[in-house]
Amino acid sequence: MSDAALINDLQTRGMRLVDPRAGNDSRRGGAGPSDHKAVTIGGTTVMVPVHTAPAFESPYLVDAPDAAGVSRVTRDRVEVAKVRFPSRPRFYDLSTADGIPYNKIAVLHSRDVLATTVLQTCIRYESRKKTCQFCSIGQSLAAGRTIARKTPEQLAEVARAAVELDGVKHMVMTTGTPPGKDRGAAILADSARAVKAAVDLPIQAQCEPPEDDAWHQRMRDAGVHALGMHLEAVTPDVRAKIMPGKASVPLEKYFASFEAAVKVFGRGQVSTYILAGLGDTPEAILAMSETLCGLGVYPFVVPFVPISGTPLESHPSPGADFMAQVLGPLATMIRAAGMSSEEIKAGCGRCGACSALSTYEKLAVPGTPANHEQRTER
């Protein structure tokens, strides 16, 4: 099994841990890659579900790390890989002057990405009739694992520490959608400006398309290097069913905002999250991705992972075959459009840990390491 196939299978099936304490802390619920654990396979760090219903029944079992920090991954008692767990970051041990732990302000994703949800509330989440059915942005706030609003000063302080202590390479700033026509762009611009004044760190901002496209340039001027505006689902029926509030923003608005943002940030520096497994067919996802690639927008397709406490907690994840039908052709499509995850300056697509897409991209280019059957630590 190639790295791409193994990562794809792990991300759709999850894994069981002999020692749940191995590696960095995993989070249950909340924004971002919740219910996952970061593991490094060869030279690639990915997020794999560990706290979901499918993961509890996964055929993959991961042993406790040995003295060298290496864990065996077995399936039906047969070793299929060896992995490592990124360690707990040192900046997690610090707190602000007013006593807020740094990991309530921002957290480590994968092994070198700092991530924060600047505003932990959302106009979509406040009503079950409007909420995105997969979203758990309010769970970590209700559990006291984060704070409702991170100030620019707090984010700058934590970002500087994460770079100095843990070698963080880039930062993701997302936000719940606030009231107002900027859709969170103003909060993100203020936050990016403060971080850039404190430390040289590439930043991706994520928000809904602002009503005024001038916000793209304002975010760029504030220090944002890349922008994510997430479709989540690609067909009107699925969008209306899965995210009734967000679906009120028509696809035409997204396309117009994508086009305007690419003019500011450049081809491949604007991206969109697409959750495979919510009802869109592989053909629909690939058709949308072809349109996005034509615009210069990177389509970051990830397998849907059900999170407990959400309306979709019992919705199945897509199978590995489904994802392979999408990721293989998509990787070729992205490369043909002159884009790649490696060239994204910051953000989810650059990190790539929530999908096997970046590994499939390497398979699409002859002579790259992922094309070879011999792999590190197997």
UniProtKB/TrEMBL annotation:
Q: Which CDD domains match?
A: Radical_SAM
Enumerate the residue ranges of region (Disordered): 15-37
- Superkingdom is Bacteria
Report any Pfam family annotated for this entry: Radical_SAM
Q: What is the protein named?
A: MSMEG_0568 family radical SAM protein
Cross-referenced Gene3D superfamilies: Aldolase class I (3.20.20.70)
Check the record and name the InterPro entries matching this protein: Aldolase_TIM, Elp3/MiaA/NifB-like_rSAM, F420, rSAM, rSAM_MSMEG0568, rSAM_sf
Native source species: Jiella mangrovi
Per its UniProt record, the required cofactor names are: [4Fe-4S] cluster
Q: Where is the composition biased (Basic and acidic residues)?
A: 16-37
Domain Radical SAM core positions: 108-343
The entry's keywords? 4Fe-4S, Iron, Iron-sulfur, Metal-binding, S-adenosyl-L-methionine
Q: What is the lineage of its organism?
A: Bacteria, Pseudomonadati, Pseudomonadota, Alphaproteobacteria, Hyphomicrobiales
Is 4Fe-4S one of the keywords UniProt gives this record?
yes
Q: SUPFAM superfamilies, per this entry?
A: Radical SAM enzymes
